[in-house]
Amino acid sequence: AVFWRRTYRLLLLGQKHQSCISSHVICHTENLNQIVRNSLHLSTLVSFHRVMTDQPPILTDLGLYNHPPAVRGMTELDKAAFTQTVNVPALRVPTNVLNKVVKSLKKVVLQRPGIKRVLEENNKDGSSKCEHRLVLLDPSSITSTDSFGSEEAAALKAFGVPQEIQRYELKLTYENLKSDEILRAVLPEGQDVTSGFSRVGHIAHMNLRDHQIPFRKLIGQVIMDKNPGITCVVNKTNTIDSTYRNFQMEVLAGEDNMVAKVRENGMFYEFDFSRVYWNPRLGTEHERIVSFLQRGDIVIDVFAGVGPFAIPAARRGCNILANDLNPESFRWLQHNGKLNKVDKKITSFNMDGRDFIRGPVKERLPALMKGSQKLHVVMNLPALALEFLDAFRDLLEPDQSLSCQDNLPQVHCYGFSKEDDPQRDIVVRAEASLKTSLQGQCSVHMVRNVSPNKEMMCASFTLPKKVLYRQHTEDRDSSEEPCPKKQKCEEQTD
């Protein structure tokens, strides 16, 4: 009992006295081992406080909200079950200096959704006083009169406000809680809590793990409730493994409306999120590539999607050849060109990437290379784009190189890598497809970390002349294999 009382008092002192807590625990190692064996938790301390004082607990740096046990394992959302009354510290402040005091204490006042931090003070007879207000303080910062910093203490002294901490019984409801607090209270103890998502217009896109699936409807509702503007929450139910780079999804909460409206880098896009590929995490990369471009440049977008490279490039004054195999992406690409008033700058195709390179690109490339404008080829299909580089081999005849010696296309090709040295891996794989060395000619940019062991990279290089132009038969390695057949996207392309 002595150990518990001493531990409880030290916990109330907060982070300023962590060394005291550590020393106390070390001195009671046998007691600590007993705690571990009995699997005692913070709730034991809270219950002990209620028994000793018969008052709601003051929760300090351990968290303002200690969820009711009844919500653990909840699969259908019952908002009323989350209601709890806790004690928080408060300061009695004269109304004539209220605004100045609150400004001085901005680092330690209570910040909680839907909670007023300044309250009227009531008499015992229920009437309100006008001379003073109660300012609620953050219990993780203020636990006693000694918790105020030097600047805060000086300000209180200057304004004539006594550093006397009062206790205020605060009622917390579902509306006052954050999404991670709610989900941490509901999901099995010790399991990962997912409150993160990708936002695509009004849609929140989640990738729930197996242990979260039984709670998916509740999770969806919480995410929608706690994020203004979200009216639909979906969960991906399979990897992106189809030819068209879309995936099956389940609506967890809200309206079944998959047509999203998105603004990225000043451009507007509309598309059916359930039928096309869109990654909101690639906005910076789209902007990076477009920043290389100059008015009049030619951009060949082999896997254009709904236009995140093609649309801003066209707005920059470039002429675009944009292709995508997915008929839905092709349709929304054309729509977005008109939406952003750049459709006159974009010639769009609905073909396989390799057929696009060996068809429309091959036909136009000799004439384009004779001009002074720079040529850029964008290949953003990270799961397979490196393998499509072989489509450029022997693309043009030798006699077509006479007047376009120095205007070779600049390629920006994306790929995933799980190797320890992803930059080297990307270059090696590009060289394998092109059947030539890129040493000293290729720069590799790390786009983003997809998962702990998976990187998305972009290799940029000038397409070698000996790759692009057909050589004499005797100069070719007779052991070279024919071009591979068309492939489906079998790896997740997020």
From TrEMBL:
Lineage of the organism: Eukaryota, Metazoa, Chordata, Craniata, Vertebrata
Pfam families associated with the record: TRM5-TYW2_MTfase, TYW2_N_2
Known function: Involved in mitochondrial tRNA methylation. Specifically methylates the N1 position of guanosine-37 in various tRNAs. Methylation is not dependent on the nature of the nucleoside 5' of the target nucleoside. This is the first step in the biosynthesis of wybutosine (yW), a modified base adjacent to the anticodon of tRNAs and required for accurate decoding.
Keywords assigned by UniProt, alphabetized: Cytoplasm, Methyltransferase, Mitochondrion, Nucleus, S-adenosyl-L-methionine, Transferase, tRNA processing
Ranges for region Disordered: 470-494
Family affiliation: Belongs to the class I-like SAM-binding methyltransferase superfamily. TRM5/TYW2 family.
Gene3D superfamilies hit by this protein: Met-10+ protein-like domains, Vaccinia Virus protein VP39
Gene Ontology BP annotations: mitochondrial tRNA methylation; tRNA N1-guanine methylation
InterPro entries: MeTrfase_TRM5/TYW2, SAM-dependent_MTases_sf, TRM5-TYW2-like_MTfase, TRM5/TYW2-like_N, tRNA_Gua_MeTrfase_euk
HAMAP family linked to this entry: TRM5
Gene Ontology CC terms: mitochondrial matrix
Catalytic activity field: guanosine(37) in tRNA + S-adenosyl-L-methionine = N(1)-methylguanosine(37) in tRNA + S-adenosyl-L-homocysteine + H(+)
PANTHER family documented for this protein: TRNA (GUANINE(37)-N1)-METHYLTRANSFERASE, TRNA METHYLTRANSFERASE
An MF annotation (GO) of this entry: tRNA (guanine(37)-N1)-methyltransferase activity
Regions of compositional bias (Basic and acidic residues) in chain numbering: 482-494
SAM-dependent methyltransferase TRM5/TYW2-type domain span: 197-465
Protein name: tRNA guanine37-N1-methyltransferase
Keyword Nucleus: yes
Top-level taxon of origin: Eukaryota
